[in-house]
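Deliverable D2.4 — example input (structure tokens):
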């Protein structure tokens, strides 16, 4: 795929929503040579290669997902950089940040460079690496944090695993703090979650599955906030699942600590009851919890405590998900359906409005990963032309035809949505157009 934009594109008569600048007005957007040349009314369409009539549509900065698993290198039967970024642009994303649980582990400059160069060759959108904080994500020895930082890693995490040792966690905070990037924690206390497959509650009792209490997440958040006191590394909580965790984050933020948190579509929309009907299709890490947790997370978004949305796109082959509850892997995919599901959970329920939703999907994740300094997550004249054109009033039902990545493991098939990304432009080139 060529990355050199040759065309000029004019997006006409669209509602431009750019939360970074506060812009929310109907205008035209002119793109030339991969950058935004103008955002204003009445731009002439002479000498333009492509005109997009976006009447009734919304144009936003390209969406950014700071938490995806592209499975590349190592598990490319599930997903790879080409297929994962194809799913991303189908979902309106122009930037994704991939997690380090690859094989080999994303803990060296070589793997950071491999991902960068493969994304440039075959990727449909921008890909940035979140590198491991410890070698092999084993929590024993520090990884090459400063070298990976220099090579372009946009954050650090052992995602898939927690950093179990408090001593190692403190060292990681000190090391990552020097880079100015964020450490992103997968919050799972291990002694409370051994062999656990689902939330501890009435459903786990009924089905007899080994259960996973909320406190396993809360303990790690509390521990990390305490360990980070005085170090002040930017601390980000991944895929928050417990309603109680929202209060812990709120308290730390009010105390002035640099703490952020993300929520995923599934924790905002379905509960542990889904395991009864869907089985392993609803097996996640952290697990789906109860209705009040879901409501507390939504309210956490409305109250400005959770400021980032992330899919935790986790592709798995159907054969693996067909195994027993104990043996099947955790996780679901999420890129193609994310916008519709977030909208259903947060906007249709009246928790936030559309511009706020766009903020949580653009400038906020850009800031988390220091990408705002590259002009990403916003619409600015002379800035990169990463733009998502959304139909805010488009009814559709999620089917396997909409899933363009390699894996189809998602519990939302058949769900109706009312908003859809229609055209995804990255670096001034149309990378995806929904044919409907
Ligand atoms: Zn995780």
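Example output (designed residues):
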């Amino acid at each position: 795929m060529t990355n050199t934009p040759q065309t000029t594109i004019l997006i006409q008569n669209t509602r431009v929503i750019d939360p970074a600048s506060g812009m929310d007005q109907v205008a035209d957007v002119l793109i030339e040579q991969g950058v935004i040349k103008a955002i204003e009314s009445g731009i002439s369409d002479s000498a333009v290669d492509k005109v997009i009539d976006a009447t009734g549509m919304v144009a936003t900065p390209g969406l950014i997902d700071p938490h995806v698993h592209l499975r590349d290198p190592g598990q490319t039967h599930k997903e790879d950089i080409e297929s994962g970024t194809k799913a991303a642009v189908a979902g309106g994303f122009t930037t994704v940040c991939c997690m380090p649980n690859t094989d080999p582990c994303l803990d060296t400059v070589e793997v950071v460079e491999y991902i960068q160069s493969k994304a440039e060759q075959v990727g449909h959108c921008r890909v940035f690496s979140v590198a491991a904080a410890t070698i092999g994500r084993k929590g024993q020895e520090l990884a090459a944090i400063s070298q990976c930082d220099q090579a372009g890693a946009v954050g650090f995490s052992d995602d898939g695993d927690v950093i179990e040792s408090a001593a190692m966690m403190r060292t990681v905070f000190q090391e990552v703090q020097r880079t100015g990037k964020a450490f992103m924690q997968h919050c799972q206390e291990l002694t409370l979650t051994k062999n656990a497959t689902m939330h501890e509650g009435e459903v786990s009792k009924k089905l007899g599955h080994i259960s996973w209490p909320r406190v396993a997440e809360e303990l790690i958040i509390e521990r990390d906030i305490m360990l980070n006191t005085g170090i002040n590394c930017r601390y980000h909580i991944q895929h928050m699942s417990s309603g109680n965790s929202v209060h812990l984050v709120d308290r730390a933020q009010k105390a002035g600590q640099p703490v952020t948190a993300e929520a995923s579509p599934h924790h905002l929309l379905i509960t542990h009851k889904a395991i009864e009907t869907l089985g392993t299709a609803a097996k996640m890490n952290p697990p789906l919890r109860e209705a009040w947790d879901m409501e507390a997370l939504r309210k956490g978004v409305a109250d400005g405590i959770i400021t980032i949305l992330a899919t935790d796109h986790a592709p798995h082959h159907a054969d693996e998900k067909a195994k027993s509850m104990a043996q099947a892997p955790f996780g679901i995919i999420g890129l193609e359906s994310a916008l519709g599901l977030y909208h259903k959970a947060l906007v249709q329920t009246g928790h936030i409005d559309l511009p706020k939703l766009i903020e949580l999907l653009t400038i906020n994740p850009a800031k988390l990963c220091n990408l705002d300094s590259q002009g990403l997550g916003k619409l600015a004249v002379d800035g990169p032309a990463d733009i998502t054109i959304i139909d805010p009033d488009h009814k559709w039902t999620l089917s396997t035809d909409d899933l363009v990545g390699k894996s189809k493991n998602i519990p939302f098939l058949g769900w109706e949505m009312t908003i859809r990304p229609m055209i995804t432009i990255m670096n001034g080139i149309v990378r995806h157009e929904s044919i409907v």
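The longest strand covers residues 8-18.
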